[in-house]
Structure formats: structure tokens, C-alpha cells
Design brief:
With 326 residues, the protein is mainly α. The chain has helices spanning 8-26, 31-43, 47-60, 65-77, 81-94, 102-114, 118-129, 140-150, 157-173, 177-191, 197-211, 214-222, 231-246, 249-262, 266-278, 282-295, 300-312, 316-325. Helix content is 75%, strand content 0%.
């Protein structure tokens, strides 16, 4: 699971990554060391560096499937499904054991889903659910044994959850509500109380929306606490529900205000500003954008955005001042 960069564990991870960097420089041919460094960088959210480490492994040994599958995991996390698919197909050409990996099935299903081949995507994920270490019967020992026999990495908890939730999403898109609800119950049982609980709650809210129970979906999304790593995604979806299904502009804005309160960054202030613009409150939007500009005064695009909003409110002199700094 990817760590929050502000968490205490991230500091320990940073020290481990520095040690791995030293080891791999001293022993350039140690591919397991490079793969461990790629994992450390991935967990630390340094995706580009992690991809470079994976590429170094596969360049040295194209049959090193563990590095290819980690590469695919990272690309999936970045929602680059087609690139992830190309990586696993290339890995498959070098190592047929890749076909037995649940991650291979997940990548294939994601690509088919993006192409609109929902029935085929569902079939692939249904097969993946029966693989060792994926379904409700999964045991950590069986997953580890299967990975060891194939020479492939063990499926992460994140990707295991992704297989469940991707199949739920496809069932919903196909209008198979009973199947999606049934699988959702299994996912809740499997992942409640862990790092994936927030993701499961958000997916469960989508099921309730499809069933027409908006109030239940709102209650579910409200239950995701600010400490949860998926709080940001839950609050964004909650905001959209208030606006689209309740026409509640105040609650829509409040969700974005709560995001800023939980994590006051340039990104969250920008989101708040755009939310205010969406509900025609430009003066509040200017305040949010200006707070973002205080955090990052060198951002010319941000200054330009503020200038456009000021023109919309007929504050031309102030707009000229912002454009001159952009």
C-alpha cells in the first residue's frame, strides 16, 4: 500500500530507500536489490523513479517478470491502462508464467473495459477471482506458495481489492445489480478494518446510487474519516452527490472546504476555488485561489487563473496586476 508522505513510516521508508540505493550502486547486477528499491519508491509515491528502477531490471533481464508486473502495477495506479497492458504482453512473451498472475488478468480486464468490451472484461475478472490468493477463500500461505511456484511476486492487498472492485464496477455497468451487490458484500467482509476499507466504502456507495438509494450512499461517504487515506476521494464523490442529486450548493462547497481543512495544499485550495466558481460564487473563489498563490507564489498559471476570475467580477485593475506577474 502506498504511504502518505507525511506519515512516520514514510521516514523509515526513506532511510531504507537510501540504503538500497547505496547497495545497488555498489552491486549494479543485483536485480533483486533494484526491484526492492523500485518497491520502496513505489510505496513512497515516487512513481517515476520506481518505473525507472523497474526498467533497469527488465533491460538487464527481459525474463524478470517480477519487475514487469510491478511496472504494470504502477502504471495501473496512474490509470495508464494501455501502457500497463503493453508491459504485461511483453513480459508474457518472455515468461509464460505471467499468464497465471492475477495482476495479468486485472490489466487485461482494465484494457477491455476501456474499449467497451465489458462482457469479456467480466469473464477475465471472474477467472481471476478463482486464482490463489484472490477470492474469499484466499489464505496468505496459499498466495505465497502460488507466487513462489511461478516465480512471480505475491499479489498486494491493494491489487487484490482492485480485482474485487473492478468486477463490481463492470457488473454495475452491465446492469447486473444483484451480482454487484453480492460481490460487494464479499469485498466488505474481506477488506473491512484495513487500509482498503475506504475504497470499498466508496464502491459500495456507487452500488447504492445505482439502486437509487442516494441517502444511504451519502451516509456511507460521510462515514469515511479524515484520517482515512481515501478521505479525499470520498469527499469529492460526496460533493458531487449533494450537487447532482440534492441540488445542495452549500453542502457541495462544504465538502471542498473540509478537504482544505484536512489538507491545506495548493491542490485542495484550487479545487475549492473551482467549486465556488461552479456554484457562481466568484468572490469566494478568488479568496481560495489567493490562498493557493500564497503557498506557491511562483505558479504563473495560478496567477493567470485568478486574473480571469477577477475579469469576470469586473475587477480589471486587480486583474492587470495578476496578469503582470503571470
Amino acid at each position: 500500500e502506498v504511504l502518505d508522505p507525511s506519515s512516520p513510516r514514510a521516514l523509515v521508508l526513506s532511510k531504507a530507500a537510501k540504503l538500497l540505493q547505496f547497495v545497488t550502486k555498489q552491486v549494479p547486477g543485483l536485480l533483486d536489490g533494484k526491484l526492492a528499491l523500485a518497491h520502496a519508491r513505489f510505496i513512497a509515491c515516487d512513481f517515476d523513479a520506481a518505473l525507472r528502477s523497474c526498467a533497469a531490471c527488465t533491460k538487464a533481464d527481459p525474463t524478470y517478470a517480477a519487475a514487469s508486473l510491478l511496472q504494470a502495477q504502477i502504471l495501473l495506479r496512474q490509470e495508464k491502462d494501455s501502457q500497463a497492458h503493453a508491459i504485461v504482453e511483453q513480459a508474457l512473451a518472455h515468461n509464460f508464467a505471467v499468464r497465471e498472475s492475477p495482476l495479468f488478468h486485472l490489466v487485461k480486464a482494465k484494457v477491455l473495459q476501456s474499449q467497451g468490451e465489458l462482457q469479456e472484461a467480466a469473464k477475465i475478472l471472474e477467472v481471476a477471482m478463482k486464482l490463489p490468493g484472490v477470492g474469499a477463500q484466499a489464505k496468505s500461505t496459499s498466495a505465497a506458495d502460488a507466487a513462489r511456484r511461478s516465480g512471480l511476486p505475491e499479489l498486494s492487498l491493494y491489487d487484490r481489492c482492485s480485482i474485487h472492485l473492478s468486477l463490481v464496477e463492470i457488473y454495475l455497468a452491465l446492469g447486473q445489480l444483484s451480482e454487484s451487490a453480492s460481490l460487494m458484500k464479499k469485498a466488505i467482509f474481506e477488506f473491512s478494518g484495513g487500509a482498503q476499507e475506504g475504497r470499498v466504502t466508496i464502491a459500495n456507495a456507487q452500488v447504492e446510487i445505482k439502486k437509487g438509494d442516494i441517502e444511504k450512499a451519502l451516509t456511507m461517504l460521510r462515514s469515511v474519516s479524515a484520517e482515512n487515506p481515501h478521505y479525499h476521494a470520498a469527499r469529492k464523490q460526496l460533493a458531487e452527490l449533494f450537487l447532482l442529486h440534492r441540488n445542495d450548493r452549500r453542502q457541495y462547497a462544504l465538502c471542498h472546504e473540509e478537504l482544505v481543512k484536512a489538507n491545506p495544499t495548493v491542490h485542495t485550495y484550487m479545487m475549492l476555488g473551482e467549486a465556488y466558481m461552479h456554484i457562481s460564487e466568484p468572490h469566494k473563489a478568488i479568496g481560495a485561489f489567493e490562498r493557493a498563490s500564497q503557498i506557491n507564489p511562483e505558479d504563473a498559471a495560478l496567477a493567470s487563473r485568478i486574473g480571469k476570475v477577477l475579469i469576470a467580477t469586473h475587477e480589471y485593475a486587480k486583474a492587470i496586476e495578476y496578469y503582470s506577474t503571470a
